[in-house]
Amino acid sequence: MEKVRGILDQNAFSLAHIDKADARIGALVRKRMETVGPTSMLFYEEPLHIVRGERVWLFDDQGKRYLDVYNNVPSIGHCHPRVVQAVAEQMGALNVHNRYLHEGIHRYAERLLDTLPRALNRLVMMCTGSESNDMALRLARGWTGRQGIIVTEAAYHGNTAAVTEVSPSSYKQGTPPDHVHILPISRMSEQADPAAWFAEQVRFGIEQLEARGHGCAALLVDSIFSSDGIYADPAGFLKPAVELLQARGGLFISDEVQPGFGRTGQGMWGFSRHGVTPDVVTIGKPMGNGFPMSGLAAREELLAVLNADVGYFNTFGGSPVAVAAGTAVLDVIAEEDLMANAERQGEYFKRQLQDIQARFEEVSDVRGAGLFLGLDLCDTTRDGAPDAQRTTALINDLKRNGVLIGGAGKSGSTLKIRPPLCIERSEADLFLDRFEQSLKATAK
What is the pTM of this model? Predict the structure, then answer.
């Protein structure tokens, strides 16, 4: 498998640059390394010391504010007062594990399940998306009796041992194991019929896994293909592949940690744009707007197989405080009409970025849905080859100019534009202005 550029490494701070950092930042970095250790990653060429958040803004220790178009965790806005109040009030009253009865978990589960296909009739609650995807793999393998998993080439699905195996972008050395088949989704934009091509890739993957003796337990995809560089269109391109997979006895696991909770602007979940019914849906990050909360929705019979084998319990999943946070998030999405805002502001973003694309030949593509957009950068001096170096330069130039953004894609040449769902037109215009400035500043 061709090496995938790490989506986190691209934007990571290098200790080799610590002597170039401001003295106060350098001191904090050294203390962090002395205490937290080498697995602790920091972003940007010079790390940020963030002390406060509000809506679409983050503020550093010097009072400088940054427009956050990167962070998918506080999707309804940093420190939303409704979530803060709900968590504080519940924490002051009671917070225990869910082996005691409490009504909130039932109300929340019913409300969330009502947004999903009827077949997905049970909700399990955890704390992280990694846990959700880990359980999804266990369900698929327990139900089918097979071990093989199909994923995309720059996918990231979490950091447990099992989920790291199906996250090609996590590998700094080596490649995923034999029971993992990789789909080359970066080639999809070259295809005349993306739906037929994707279905053929899944069919080939099933046959490869069967030939290796693993069989195919599941197709696991993030339905916006975030880490792969954002592949949203054409809407419906997943449908033939999912139907083929399910007809062959495999399960479709839709990882909604990134596109879920209205981000695409065209429904609560990313998979709904494709007209498919997943066997398992995994959710996380935006579920609690920063409170550590995740979940998995599936048919009752899938969970019954796991329960008969080893069972499952999560100490903090579905606690009264988690439920309070999650309920407040659902309230805000509805009351502030954030799904419609995601569609409206996303369309505006896309039109304006396409105008920039028409004026700057190094911008080779703009794609996405709602407030989840990808913009590709190319090197015009090398026949339009992906330009990860320029992408990294833009990320850091934008940071210096008060805008936070990240990269994605197999080659690391995609800017991932993913602001809180409450972003307004004036804030979108600020980003567009700063982005065009940075394009000019980083020109070769």
Answer: 0.92
